[in-house]
Amino acid sequence: HAKRKGRNTWQWYHGAGVKSTLDSVFLRNELQQALEKDEFTLHYQPVVDAVSGKIRSVEALVRWNHPERGMISPGDFIPLAEKTGQIVPLGQWVLRQACREIARLNASSERMLPVAVNISSLQFLRENFLTAVDDALEASGLPARFLELEVTESVLLDGAEPVIALMDTLSSRGIRVAIDDFGTGFSSLSYLRDLPTHKVKLDRSFINKTLTDRRTAAIVQGVITMAHHMDMVVVAEGIETEDEQNDLVRRNCDLLQGYRFSKPVPLEVLAELPDRLPGIGS
Ligand code: C2E
Ligand code: MG
Ligand code: MG
Ligand code: MG
């Protein structure tokens, strides 16, 4: 029937596009059902104090536990979910689940951990996002100050004003907003100045180059110094080695996150982690 739809359609079903087209059609339908079938799960990665190694917060990271394909990482379905809009219900599930699980964890232990949830721009900029956040907090009993939202610079693509207004409202409720993957996207220093945010997360792509590239090191040091002058804290993501850890500590980075301290782990494993994670081997 491809012929009936004309030449463009015929081309569409041939060549290199075939596999990815079919894949995304399948994936799209499967994504739809995955939520109903409860196939998503959250792992949590600690963020530690750069000096003491004390766990300060955790970041929720979604995984798709696919019945046939096994554990699928978010890089393989979040971009599609963003394209189809399915990120909105999925993101809402993540928000509710993260609040619920961390509220339960905090209630069962001495340690009170804030949780950071990644929010896609599409989800963040939806009219009812604030209601969705309120719902998640209310349903879980998690106090607002234990919730942090991670957004990337791409929320600013359609203009800063509505974003600033929303962030102001969120912070008046005690909910904090962090800028994720800072420096990789639509960066403008004047936006950083205007955003009511308290934290920037330096992308992993900078961290593993600081030791070998002077210019990358200059950016990293510059961001840290600038953020501190704006009363923001800086997290370095993707710390894997002792050298990277030492370098970021020396540069006055406040918080560290990476495989060196802990990979993202299931809630049961998180519950058993010690209060301090000084880094493998130290
Ligand atoms: P992100 O928010 O920047 O999260 C950090 C990613 O880096 C995570 O990958 C984490 O596992 C990985 N990582 C942490 N430390 C290290 C390290 O030392 N070395 C290396 N090589 N990697 C490290 P993950 O879990 O695969 O997530 C990838 C991205 O998918 C996230 O990047 C985030 O943008 C997105 N994502 C994950 N969960 C969600 C979600 O619930 N909602 C939305 N909208 N996006 C999500
Ligand atoms: Mg993140
Ligand atoms: Mg990040
Ligand atoms: Mg990143």
From TrEMBL:
Tree of life domain: Bacteria
Every EAL domain range: 24-278
UniProt name for this protein: cyclic-guanylate-specific phosphodiesterase
Residues of the full protein shown: 451 to 732 of 732
